[in-house]
Amino acid sequence: MKKTILVAMALILAVSALAQTPKRDAVHGILGDYDAEPRLADKHVDADFLLARLKELGANTYLWLIWHQPTDWEDLQCFLPKAAEAGIDVWVYLVPPSEPPPSEPFGLDYLRWGEEIAKLSLKHANLKAWMIDDFHANTAKLFTPGYVRAMQARAKAVNPRIVFLPLMYYGEITRKFVDDYREVVDGVVAAYPEDRDEITAAWELLNDVRTANAGELSYPWSMPSRAGDFIQAAQPAAVQPAARTQVRFREKDDFRGATAGYHFKQLLVDDAVVWEQDAAVGGPSWQDVTVDLTDAVRGKENVTLAFRLFDKKGVSNFGVRWQLRDLRAEGLRVAADFREPQKWTVRSRGAFQSGFDANAQEGKRRFHVPFIVMTAGQRSEFKMRHGEPASPDRIAEWVRLSLRAWHDGQCNGVVMYCLEKSRRSAVFDAVRKEFRAAPDQSPTESKR
User: Fold this and answer.
1) How far apart are CA 65 and CA 35, in angstroms?
2) Out of 2.30.29, 3.30.70, 2.40.33, 2.60.120, which CATH number does the structure's domain 216-360 have?
3) 44-88 pLDDT, tens per residue?
């Protein structure tokens, strides 16, 4: 009975620590790198060469992936004291169930992982955090808020200062995610920003500056839909005397695959489609669209203008975000443009989400979730995310974009994804120049 009471008390204290942990100390001012570790002939990590390159880079944090070899956990324990001497903090990085084989030696037992990482952090003070890759894709089957709370309780019962962060993609950072997980994670690492707007939007959600991504219609990943499901944002418009009636707007979506025939972006006048484009056709850059509405409004004094994301076929796992900007009309007087998304009326069926109507209201700044930007430091990954050329200059451009967001208080640091580390790497040299030019930041909360 006494042992049971002690265990219960320990869990209560751990849960209490989860809410009180000084996470900003560990998750602020991060200049880091992840993975792409050099190996010796025996397949162990070449810790000395890795640390030499991290010091040249000007990094203060390294995200240690446990996945490539069965000896990665063992090598980590040899690496930690050397990293401490070099002034480098370390975060342990695990793979989720969707990325077999699992990290070893504790496999898919993430409760045990949290406990063992926390134990190791008591021996090595520079072990500050742990992460799980592709977190959101595994939330439905394993990483529920309750499970993550239990993971955290196990870890913080050992060391209340150890922090946990999921690896996310920008389209996954939604109002629902923030509402469900902000109390059980210590921060977020978000990979591959398309532009500065994506960083700003994520920061606004994670800091309760805005309750949703304004001017956006979206469908989440890992969620099935049915044909005919939709979401639309609409408003009335008065028809003006004019020889020609048209609207112009800018749009983009974040889908990069070739799958076609499912999600369609549409413009409607009085429920009639006057423009549409398959989400598979759009691109990552802003596109200027002009639609002639002369025939659609002829003989009418007032119409309803609606932007709709519509499923012609149901999806099983096909997320997309459609962003809209700069609405202009000729021959129409609209009540509000995209700068006032709260004035639009939203209708939907299915799991679609919106950055219009009440969802687009300003937040109350009730919370702050630390936020690290991850950008590609490997040519192949950069090409996949941002297209050609995957040159050192373009990779450096994204690093500058991310560092400027950090400087402006819209994130808590920047981490490279798999930065090339060979001695003659032009990518390494380009990123080193940007890291070395980054302004020194003291460990205080980001601007809010």
Assistant:
1) 6
2) 2.60.120
3) 999 999 999 999 999 999 999 999 999 999 999 999 999 999 999
